[in-house]
Design brief:
The protein has one domain: Jelly Rolls (Sandwich), CATH 2.60.120.630. Helix content is 14%, strand content 36%. The chain contains two helices and eight strands, in the order βββαββββαβ.
């Protein structure tokens, strides 16, 4: 966690197979490739891995605490507007989160070791259309996690 801002940042990248079309979840993974069947995935090659450890600790120490995630697509290729495309997703931390490879954000209250956020207000398909387009163009992605006060 950044001591000055109370934020945890993960960097990832988009991929040509990202569809971001799932209606109930979204996912960020450390995997470097994704097939078109992974319709909830919004970012691949997530790092640093230390951020996953800090997110696990945050979830275990703050069950059900509110969290917001800012997803920013930097320098999207093939877009008319070169500005950063972004969207924000908010929900509650899941104390059962323990994954070292995947971060899943769910609209529902379903809990698993892969699920960091439950009762989210958005799924992949609900993200800003410009952001979704940028994700499929392979842009660099900054994902910022910040808990509520």
């Amino acid at each position: 966690m950044n001591n000055k801002t109370g934020e945890i940042v993960i960097w990832a990248r988009g991929h040509e197979n990202i569809r971001a079309s799932h209606h109930s979840t979204l996912e960020i993974t450390t995997d470097s490739e994704v097939s078109p069947r992974g319709d909830c995935i919004v970012g691949v090659d997530a790092s640093p891995l230390d951020a996953f450890r800090r997110l696990r600790k945050l979830a275990h120490e703050n069950p059900s605490k509110n969290i917001c995630i800012l997803i920013e697509c930097m320098g999207c290729r093939g877009m008319n507007d070169k500005s950063v495309c972004s969207d924000r997703v908010c929900g509650r931390l899941n104390q059962d989160f323990s994954s070292e490879r995947e971060i899943v954000i769910r609209l529902s209250s379903f809990s698993s070791e892969r699920t960091l956020v439950i009762n989210a207000d958005k799924s992949a398909v609900m993200l800003n259309p410009l952001l979704r387009k940028g994700l499929s163009s392979g842009c660099r992605i900054k994902v910022t996690f910040k808990t509520g006060d």
